[in-house]
């Protein structure tokens, strides 16, 4: 089985619609794909409706969190999307996205960049606006060569010159909410150092003690020594280890299925979840 547990669609900051994403996942030879848009489940219905035979959909979301001033992302799988407390927190994060992006536009204009809010809103479309949309505007303007090049201290990295914070969950609260909604919680790309500051291993241990289920190890932003170190840490803490593409369509260079999750780990995630079940494609 080929299993990719971290992808994004136009419901947040990807460039593929949910339907295009699941069709692309099937074409890439995946057996299982998780749709984990930022702080939203808005793409799940379309993905379900378009799900090809032979492909299984895992519903999820990537939750924005912060601990001791450091941003982190929590992948939440197979939770009940209607559980009111978690739904309310997702809404608070989403509601803060527009003023945050407008604040980044204002900072960039102060730095001499001829960016406009109208440009960013056009790029975001119906998706939950975020930094990648602002980064795409910088690419359009020729300020940077790629979206990744915008995520530097010079521009949009955490605490960069044009960075603006947003409402983020305390990760301990997020884990509690995800588990309360019957979901499974995995720390996304915990050592993606090029994105900015990362939480220390001591904090990961505290999150594990609070109910964190796993950490994403095989990811494009982790080099091989980092993966080796994270695997050892997961073993010490009794955490599951996942792998995934963090696919964003044309907004990033990663491909669907570039990194995958072991089928036994996937089976354990499904076993632990009580809020929702994987969705098999027609005939799958």
Task: Characterize the structure shown.
With 284 residues, the chain is α/β, with parallel strands linked by helices. The chain is 38% helix and 15% strand. Strands 1, 2, 3, 4, 5, 6, 7 and 8 form an 8-stranded mixed sheet that branches. Strand 3 (56-67) and strand 4 (70-77) form a beta hairpin. The mean pLDDT is 95.
Concise structural overview:
This protein is an alpha/beta fold.
Topology:
Blueprint: E1 3-7, H1 18-27, E2 32-35, H2 44-50, E3 56-67, E4 70-77, H3 84-95, H4 97-110, H5 117-124, H6 131-140, H7 147-150, H8 171-180, E5 184-187, H9 201-209, E6 214-218, H10 224-237, E7 240-243, H11 263-272, E8 279-280
Parallel strand pairs: 1-2, 2-3, 5-6, 6-7
Antiparallel strand pairs: 3-4, 3-8, 4-5
Helix pairs in contact: 1-2, 5-6
Primary descriptors:
single chain; 284 residues; alpha/beta; 11 helices
- Taken in chain order, the helices and strands follow as EHEHEEHHHHHHEHEHEHE
Q: If you average the pLDDT, what whole number results?
A: 95
Task: Measure the end-to-end span.
Answer: 13 Å
Measured by DSSP, the beta-strand proportion falls in 15-25%
The helical percent reads 25-40%
Characterize the biggest β-sheet: 8 strands, mixed
Task: Give the overall silhouette.
Answer: globular
Count of discrete alpha- or pi-helical segments spanning 4 or more residues:
11
Regions with pLDDT < 50 over 5+ consecutive residues?
A: none
The count of DSSP E runs of length 2 or more, i.e. the number of strands, is 8
If you compute it from the alpha carbons, what radius of gyration comes out, rounded to the nearest whole angstrom? 18 Å
Structural class designation: alpha/beta
């Amino acid at each position: 089985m080929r299993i990719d547990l971290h992808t994004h669609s136009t419901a947040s900051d990807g460039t593929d619609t949910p339907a295009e994403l699941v069709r692309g996942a099937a074409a890439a030879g995946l057996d299982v794909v998780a749709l984990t848009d930022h702080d939203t489940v808005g793409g799940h219905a379309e993905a379900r409706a378009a799900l090809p035979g032979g492909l299984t959909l895992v519903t999820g979301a990537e939750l924005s969190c912060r601990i001791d001033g450091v941003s982190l992302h929590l992948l939440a799988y197979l939770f009940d999307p209607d559980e009111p407390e978690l739904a309310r927190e997702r809404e608070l994060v989403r509601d803060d996205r527009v003023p945050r992006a407008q604040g980044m536009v204002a900072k960039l204009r102060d730095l001499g960049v001829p960016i406009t809010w109208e440009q960013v809103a056009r790029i975001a479309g119906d998706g939950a606006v975020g930094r990648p949309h602002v980064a795409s505007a910088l690419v359009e303007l020729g300020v940077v060569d790629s979206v990744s090049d915008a995520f530097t201290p010079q521009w949009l990295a955490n605490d960069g010159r044009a960075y603006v914070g947003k409402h983020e969950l305390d990760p301990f609260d997020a884990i509690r909410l995800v588990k309360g909604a019957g979901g499974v919680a995995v720390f996304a790309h915990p050592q993606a150092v090029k994105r900015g500051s990362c939480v220390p291993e001591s904090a990961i241990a505290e999150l594990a003690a609070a109910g964190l289920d796993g950490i994403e190890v095989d990811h494009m932003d982790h080099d091989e020594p980092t993966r080796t170190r994270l695997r050892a840490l997961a073993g010490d803490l009794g955490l599951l280890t996942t792998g995934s593409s963090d696919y964003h369509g044309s907004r990033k260079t990663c491909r669907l299925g570039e990194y995958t999750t072991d089928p036994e780990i996937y089976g354990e995630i499904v076993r632990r979840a009580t809020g929702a079940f994987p969705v098999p494609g027609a005939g799958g």
